Structures are given as structure tokens and as C-alpha cells.
Amino acid sequence: TLKSDGIDAWLLVAPTKGINVWCAAGGGHFSTDTGVSILNTSGIADMVDHRRLILPQLSATGINIWDLKKRTEWEPRFGPVDIKNFADDLRKEATESKKQYRSVEFSLCDRLVMGSNLAFSSLLFLIVPLIIASIWINGVYWKSIPLIFLLSVLSSLLVFRLPGGPGARKGFSLGLLVAASFVIISQTVWILSPWETTGWTGWILLLSTYIGYEQPSWSPLWRSDFKELILGVKNTNIEVVQDRCIGCGLCEIVCPANVFEFHSDTKKSFVINFDACQACGACIENCPNEAIKNNFEAGVCSCPTCGIINTVKSLKTTRQEKEDQEPVASDNCRHSGTCECGGKEHTQRQ
């Protein structure tokens, strides 16, 4: 893209373990420390005669632009969300970049890809229960696999058309639509028994509701918060404290959902689209005067996938901390097994 647009620039690649920019930044894999390390170890300072650095906008959840500037000789700023708009963004000042270049989109093609990923993820969680259930319910395993893929793809493709809020409510709406179609086909084409029809109808509704709950964690537009996805209760709170706002406008630049707007007359930023807030934390990370009042933490996700990953990480951390606190015998310790020397001849792991 850079070459085809005629842009003469060096591209620094960050090691994010194969994770996309947004998730890597939110998960701590793409941080200010990462940026400092790349700049110091790549030798880029000897290759160019300027110190202009353009960062991916979606890295703002993990990179503090003020801290990066302070720790290096570079003048960093955030570019557009999508690299296809990089050339146009480069021709303008950061504050003049078109708003649509700084907003995350969820196109039909993207939704189709996300739907496939959602299906594989859901199948990963449900495969063991389905195999066990197939012992008593004949065919539930192999019949549920295409059903999962169908519901996942439809959930992503129709997400803007389905009634209800993002999450379980949209999933239930889709379930009603698919279940109604199934009942008609089962009674006119397949001629299933009433019990089979009832059982599969309930399973479609349950499965679709679960997929609807999981779907926002695969989309870039909604926060995966339990209360919002299940109960429909807006659990996110964010506002700009006017007395602390210095009018830098950076919150508007880094926000991928157009939550903020900078007023040129007051030289202050305001929250204008509260419902769109995804709690990514980019504005909080980069506010130089802590003027963003909120009730959430950056990068927190309550979807099933992240729930399991975070639980495993927490258990590993707890186990490691426990091991670090256990006394270790020193070279001159005369004891073996359970030592009762009171730690006098032992060293402590640091």
C-alpha cells in the first residue's frame, strides 16, 4: 500500500505475537515500552534525517503518545484506522484528518470473516458437550455443527438489521427468525415429530442466544460487557471533566467510535455519542491531564473466550507468585525435604 501510493517511508514492525493491533494494544502486547524498544533497537534514527513517527490509531489503547515522546527523540502522532487511508491522512495535519478515517468500520466482507471466526470459536467451546450429548441424542453432534456456522454467519451479516441491542438480545431475535423457519420446514418438508420439532426449536433459540452474546467480542463496534450484552443495562460511564481539559483534542483523534467532539469556541472536548463508547481506554491512556472520568479499565472483556484466557492467566500468575514466595535451599543448606531451619540457611527467590 505504501509503495503503490508513492509514499517514501520506513515501516517498523512490532512483535505482537500475531495479534491484531487493537487487541494487542489492549492486552499489553503493543505498549509504549514496545514502541521505545523498536525505535532504540531498529537503528531507524540513523536511517532518516527527521523524527516524525506515525502510529496506528488503534494502538492508542496501549501506547501513551506523551510518554513515548518524552522517552525518545521522536515526534509521534496517530494515523488513520485503516492503512488504505494513510496516504490521504499523511497529506493533512492530524487534527484535519477526516473523521471517517478515524472511525472503525464493520463492512459486509469483514462481517462474513468475523462470522466464520465466531463459528469456530463457538464450536471450540461446545464440541465436548455436544459429543457427550450425542450419546443420548442421536445426531445432535453432526447436525449442530452446520447449525452453529449458519447462526454465526447470519448473526454477523444481519447484526445491523436484527432488533434489540447488541449481544444476547440480537441473538435471541435471530433465533426466533431461524426457529420459525425451521418449524415451517420441519412440518412441511421433513415431517418431524412434535417432540423433535420442539427440541430442535429450543436448541436453536438457546444456541442463537449464546452466539449473539459471543458475537460482539468478534466485532469492533461493541464492548463485551456482561450487563450490556445480557441485561441491556448501559454499564459504561465516561465524561470529560471540563476544569481539567486543556483542549489538546487528542481524545477525539484516538477514539475509534466518534464519542468525543472538540469545540473550537470553548477549546474543550465533550462527549457527544455516549452510547457508542466501547471502553477501549484509548482516550484515558492518552489524556495528558487525566480529564477523562470513567468507570472502566482499558482492554477488559467479559466474553467467554477472554473469560477463560484471563482465568488461566490469573491461575498461572497466582501459582508463580506462590512459588516465588517459597524458600529455596541455599548451597550450604544441610537439610533435604521439608526444612525446619527457620530459613536461616536459605535464600528467598526474588
Given helix and strand content, the structural type is mainly alpha
Helicity, in percent?
40-55%
Q: Main sheet: which strands, in order across? A: 1-2
- Describe the largest sheet: 2 strands, parallel
The run of helices and strands is HHEHEHHHHHHEHEEHEHEE
Number of helices: 12
The overall pLDDT average reads 82
- The rounded Rg comes to 26 Å
Query: Given the C-alpha coordinates, what overall shape results?
Result: elongated
Distance separating the two termini: 48 Å
Number of strands: 8
Low-confidence stretches: 328-350
Our estimate of the beta-strand percent is 5-15%
Describe this structure as you would to a colleague.
The structure is a single chain. This protein has about 350 residues and is mainly alpha-helical. It has twelve helices and eight strands. The strands form four sheets. It has a two-stranded parallel sheet with strand order 1-2. Strands 3-6 form a two-stranded antiparallel sheet. Residues about 330-350 have low confidence and may be disordered.
List the helices and strands and how they pair.
Layout: H1 21-26, H2 32-41, E1 52-55, H3 65-71, E2 75-78, H4 86-90, H5 108-133, H6 140-157, H7 168-190, H8 194-214, H9 226-231, E3 238-240, H10 250-254, E4 260-263, E5 268-271, H11 282-286, E6 292-294, H12 304-325, E7 327-329, E8 346-348
Helix pairs in contact: 2-3, 5-6, 6-8, 7-8
